[in-house]
Amino acid sequence: MQQKDEAAHEDAQGVSDEIIDTLRRWVDEVVVPGASALELADEYPTEMAEQMEDFGLFGATIPESHGGLDLDHVTYARVIEELSRGWMSLAGIVNSHLICAKLIDRFGTPEQRDRSLPGMATGKLRGCFSLSEPDSGSDAGALRCRAVRDGDEFVINGTKMWVTNGERAGIVALLARVPEGDPGGSSGITCFLVDKMPGKQSGGITVSRKIDKIGYRGLETVEMSYVDHRVPADRVLGGDEGIGNGLRWALAALELGRINVAARGVGVAQAAYDAAVAYAKQREAFGKPIAKHQAIAFKIAEMATKLHAARLMTYDAARKADAGERVDLAAGMAKLFASETAAELSLDAMRIHGGNGFSTEYPVERYYRDAPLMIIGEGTSEIQKLVISRALLADD
Ligand SMILES: Cc1cc2nc3c(=O)[nH]c(=O)nc-3n(C[C@H](O)[C@H](O)[C@H](O)COP(=O)(O)OP(=O)(O)OC[C@H]3O[C@@H](n4cnc5c(N)ncnc54)[C@H](O)[C@@H]3O)c2cc1C
Asked: Which mutation among 39, 131, 132, 189 tests ligand 1's pocket best, with the greatest number of atoms within 8 A of CB?
């Protein structure tokens, strides 16, 4: 199907096919054979991450002027799709890093861009994005983390949940509420560029626990607590203008993050589809390959159709982003459809594998455990429906 889905790929051309071809070979030769063992052991893929550094992927969407590859959204979506076809966690290693970089690039001051983006482009400086809290996720405006000004500094107190790459990060795009902004509403929410030492402790920041997950393993997702942690005032994203603009800017960055999650869904769905087809052709029952039983053949036809639609929707949203158009509707639809497709196809692939699908000897169980994250992260399916319906029903 990957080869056969030329219509979607040709449509996505005008992009660097060389990057995709190199990545595809690497995924087939290195990631596919190695992913399941690392994932089951919940082990960080150090060598794979180093190879991703060599490919320049930590700078994938960072401008060339700051050392990045400056990939357009369509190419970046295809990169994420390839990584996720091999192992979705690899996409997670670059994703929150690049959301942090995107915030700095779009909304940071020239000094903030010059200071952080070159190191981030090489991957030597890792970034993470920290919005969610124990009591606020979808309702991001309800966050409680506080940043109180004290002279030339802000003093930060609060607890953040679900910080992907939080321990390895040297810079955190942290959303906190500045009381003098507007304590009653979301307008006091500000994004801070918090510098930290990679590791469990840095100043008043503690990685208080690593969250054990059913999927998306191998990279850390952590809880982080801030106790009287001091951040210089010049680390407010965008300078003084940034006070109270953090949530709006973060939501804008997440809009693009949704294209990324949609692309992850396409990658996992592709992997599930490929595994299902290969298995259906070689597994025999009642005297013939199970692919020759119409129930299985029809399931494969349905899987291919949904996969193709998810890919086209994802590229469409990416193309709109490249054209500078509004992408809330297209990205919301792509994320909703592609993430649900990944979940459906991973279960379909498991069904087609029969008992073997339930065994850790075959990778489909990993796709089945990884897929639900796409339904939850960067806005759940219900939140996508809110975004989509608001865009459709808005008064002109
Ligand atoms: C593995 C993992 C990694 C993550 N990484 C990061 C990260 O790096 N940085 C970060 O900031 N966050 C991260 N997150 C957090 C993620 O963005 C949130 O989990 C997500 O936004 C949902 O928030 P919640 O978990 O608080 O669920 P809730 O907001 O409590 O939602 C619970 C349920 O209620 C539904 N719901 C909520 N509001 C509405 C509504 N208005 N209408 C209808 N239904 C509604 C939701 O759809 C969901 O089904 C990560 C999460 C996971 C699982």
From this structure: 132
